[in-house]
Amino acid sequence: MGEAKRRKAEIERQKNEELAWRASLSPEQKISADVAMRAHDRIVRALNLREACYQMALFLNQCLRELHQVETEAVIGWINDGTWEGVASHAWIELGGKKIDISLTHTSHRDPQPSGGLLILDRLVTKGAANYSYYKEQPQSAIEYLNKLKVASPKAMEIMAQKNKQHQMFEGIARDPERIHLYLNSAPSPTRYDALLRLMS
């Protein structure tokens, strides 16, 4: 089989997998997948949006609840890209325990934080430079590693203290729909909740 035929067969296989996956989704899952894909294409990718995991997770959570009556969990958790022993704060949403993460495809600093895949209901739609592991709670091994890092580097201690404070703040916001609403509407005007909704239409 020639290269062109192999490529055609691969594209056909991917299309069939996509159709089979979509056919397996419940109505709520289909809505969530469609909204997440649209948000990724029209907001994250179109605006080249970076460092926006909290905003995008809370935006999807709010948008799905208000406009589509789909209740998701906004998760303020932790990720690891496989290149170190620690974890970094990150946000995504879950529907029935299945992860949706649209913000890791665009990162600001590729060396310390390589891009990740587009994850829709646990399905890796597009691959990134790294395969991330997700944690709702910090693993004990990561806590021990970060504690050692704090001792070895006072500057790292200061940065981690700031990041932990931010993480805790967003944990509180994610638990309260009113605080989510206030946060999304206090963003700079081009990325405020109503402005992002217009990009989705």
Low-confidence stretches: none
In total, the number of strands is: 6
**Secondary-structure content class:** alpha+beta
Sketch the major β-sheet. 6 strands, antiparallel
Assign a percent range to the helix content.
40-55%
SSE succession: HHHEEEEEEHHHH
Distance between the termini: 44 Å
Number of domains: 1
- As a percent range, the share of strand residues is 5-15%
| Cα radius of gyration in angstroms | 18 Å
Q: In one word, what is the shape? A: globular
**Count of DSSP helices?**
7
- Average pLDDT works out at 93
Biggest sheet, spatial arrangement of strands: 5-4-3-2-1-6
Characterization of the model:
The structure is a single chain. The chain has seven helices and six strands, in the order αααββββββαααα. It has helices at residues 3-23, 27-45, 53-68, 140-152, 154-174, 177-185, 193-200; strands at 73-80, 88-95, 98-101, 118-120, 123-126, 133-135. A six-stranded antiparallel sheet has the order 5-4-3-2-1-6. β1 (73-80) and β2 (88-95) form a beta hairpin. It is globular and about 55 Å long.
Primary descriptors:
single chain, alpha+beta, globular
Could you provide a short overview of the structure?
It is built from seven helices and six strands. The protein is of the alpha+beta class. A hairpin with a 2-residue loop joins strand 4 and strand 5.
